[in-house]
Amino acid sequence: MAQIRMVKKEDLADLVVLENRCFLKEEAATEEAFKKRIETISDSFFVAEVEGVIMGLINGPVIETPYITDDLFSEIKVNPRTGGHQSVLGLAVSPEYQNQGIAGALLANLEKDAKEKHRETVTLTCKKDLVGFYETHGYVNQGVSSSEHGGVTWYNMVKPLK
């Protein structure tokens, strides 16, 4: 089973490869974005690894509003110690490790961490084909997001933590 741990600077190259395997170029986080997230929000950036190989990641800043806005993909601030809404900007699992519960384990890990820090919700956007996956993990579909990231339609998914 995968081990989940906090991200480290040394993970950068592997994270970029993984992201580009899982997302279209227009949607994938860049190396620069990952570098900034590792430096700024490592406390809400986790990786899953099997025998030292990273096969999954989850990350996102804590935000003041319950919905993700496109500016988050370029501007990230340090997370407050408590409160706010834990966002998920990226959740990715290598194709050969999908359907083994790794994405769910990464979500559960982030949610546990968010609860401990008294966050109000975990919030994310996803494409229509993933709405059901998130609903099975307790997220509520709040309808189409205003996000235009990657030029596709995204849905706001929110899980209350209180």
UniProtKB/TrEMBL annotation:
Q: Which InterPro entries match?
A: Acyl_CoA_acyltransferase, GNAT_dom, SNAT-like
Residue intervals of the N-acetyltransferase domain: 2-162
Q: Which UniProt keywords apply?
A: Acyltransferase, Ribonucleoprotein, Ribosomal protein, Transferase
Sequence intervals crossing the membrane: none
One GO cellular component term of this record is: ribosome
Which Gene3D superfamilies does the annotation name? 3.40.630.30
> Record's CDD domains?
NAT_SF
Q: Pfam families attached here?
A: Acetyltransf_10 (PF13673)
GO MF, one term, reads: N-acetyltransferase activity
- Asked whether the keyword Phosphoprotein is assigned, the reply is no
Keyword match rRNA-binding: no
The molecule here is called Ribosomal protein S18 acetylase RimI-like enzyme
* Source species: Neobacillus bataviensis
Phylogenetic classification of the source organism: Bacteria, Bacillati, Bacillota, Bacilli, Bacillales
